[in-house]
Write a structure and sequence with these properties.
By secondary structure, the protein is of the alpha/beta class. The chain has 11 helices and 10 strands. Helix 3 runs parallel beside helix 4. It is globular. The termini are close together.
Length: 288
C-alpha cells in the first residue's frame, strides 16, 4: 500500500497531564498529537501569550507537531440557542490557541443533525456553524465536525448548505461502524471535499443502536462507559473490530488526503499499550 500520512495520537488518552502525555506520545513513535483544550491546563483562558510560546517550543523540541485541538463542550452540541453564544465564543478561543500552537484545525461534535432540513433545530445548527465557519475561514482554519452521530450523506448535505468551507470533517470510522452502521469507506468518498483530520479507531456493533442514546446529550465519559460495557457497541483495539483498515486507508489515499491519522483510544485498562500497538499497526500499513 505505502502512504506518507503522519501518525498522531490523542495525548490526553494517556491520562498523564499535558507535558507527560506529550513525552509519552513521542516515546511511542507518534509524529504529532491532538489535545483537548476545554478545561484545566489547556483551557485558553489559562494560557498567556508566553505560556503558549513556551508550550509550542516544548512540543517542537520533542520533535512533535499538533495535529489538531479539540473543543467539544458536550450537552446538545449547537442545538440550544441559549447555550450557543458562549460555546461559539469558547470555540473561537480554542481556534486562536490552535494557531498559537501551530495547527489550524479544531475538532468538535455539533449534535445530531436532523433528518429534515425543515426541522427547527436544523436552522439553529446552521446559524451556529456558519458563524464558526466564517471565523475559521477568515483565519485559514477549520472547525472539523466528527463523524458518527448521523450518516455521512446527511452530514455532507448539511456542510453543503453552509456559507463557507471553514466547517469541515474530522473523520472517525469506528463511530460510524459502532453507532449508525454507516460504511466508513463509502463515507470517505462521500465527504472527500471536507476531510481535514482523521481518527484511527476500531469497534464493533453488537446490535442496532439509536444514535440519540449515544450522541443525543454529549457526554464523552458516558460514551466511553457505553463503548466499554457493550451497550449495543464496543470500542476495541485496532484490527479486532469491523473497520476495514486496508480499504479505509486506500480510500483516504484515493481522495488525496494528506493529513494526520490520529489514534484515539477512549476505553481500556491499558491505554498506553493499546495506543503503542495502534501506532505500530498504522506503521505496518504505511510501509507496505
Amino acid at each position: 500500500m505505502g502512504f506518507k500520512n503522519k501518525i498522531g495520537v490523542i495525548s490526553d488518552s494517556f491520562g498523564l497531564g499535558v507535558k507527560e502525555g506529550l513525552k509519552k506520545a513521542k516515546e511511542i513513535g507518534a509524529d504529532g498529537v491532538q489535545i483537548w483544550a476545554i478545561a484545566g491546563e489547556m483551557e485558553p483562558d489559562n494560557l498567556t501569550a508566553e505560556d503558549r510560546k513556551e508550550l509550542r517550543n516544548y512540543i517542537s523540541g520533542l520533535g512533535l507537531e499538533v495535529s489538531a485541538l479539540c473543543a467539544d463542550y458536550g450537552g446538545h452540541g449547537f442545538k440550544n440557542p441559549e447555550e450557543n453564544g458562549w460555546k461559539i465564543e469558547k470555540s473561537k478561543q480554542v481556534l486562536d490557541l490552535a494557531f498559537d500552537l501551530g495547527t489550524n484545525i479544531v475538532t468538535t461534535h455539533i449534535g445530531i443533525i436532523p433528518e429534515s432540513s425543515d426541522d427547527p433545530e436544523y436552522a439553529i445548527m446552521q446559524q451556529a456553524c456558519n458563524e464558526l465557519a466564517a471565523y475559521a475561514s477568515s483565519r485559514g482554519g477549520y472547525f472539523a465536525i466528527e463523524t458518527g452521530p448521523e450518516p455521512a450523506e446527511r452530514l455532507k448535505k448539511f456542510l453543503d448548505s453552509l456559507d463557507s468551507k471553514g466547517a469541515a470533517v474530522n473523520f472517525d470510522p469506528a463511530n460510524m461502524v459502532m453507532v449508525t452502521g454507516d460504511d466508513p469507506v463509502q463515507g470517505v468518498y462521500t465527504l472527500r471535499d471536507y476531510i481535514v483530520h482523521t481518527h484511527v479507531k476500531d469497534g464493533v456493533r453488537l446490535r442496532e443502536v439509536d444514535p440519540r442514546d449515544v450522541y443525543g446529550v454529549l457526554d464523552h465519559e458516558q460514551i466511553a462507559v457505553m463503548a466499554e460495557g457493550g451497550a449495543g457497541f464496543r470500542e476495541v483495539p485496532l484490527g479486532e473490530g469491523n473497520v476495514d483498515f486496508e480499504a479505509y486507508f486506500t480510500a483516504l489515499q484515493d481522495i488525496g488526503y494528506a493529513g494526520y491519522l490520529t489514534v484515539e483510544r477512549e476505553v481500556g485498562e491499558r491505554p498506553e499499550n493499546d495506543i503503542r500497538a495502534a501506532v505500530k499497526f498504522i506503521q505496518s500499513y504505511r510501509h507496505r
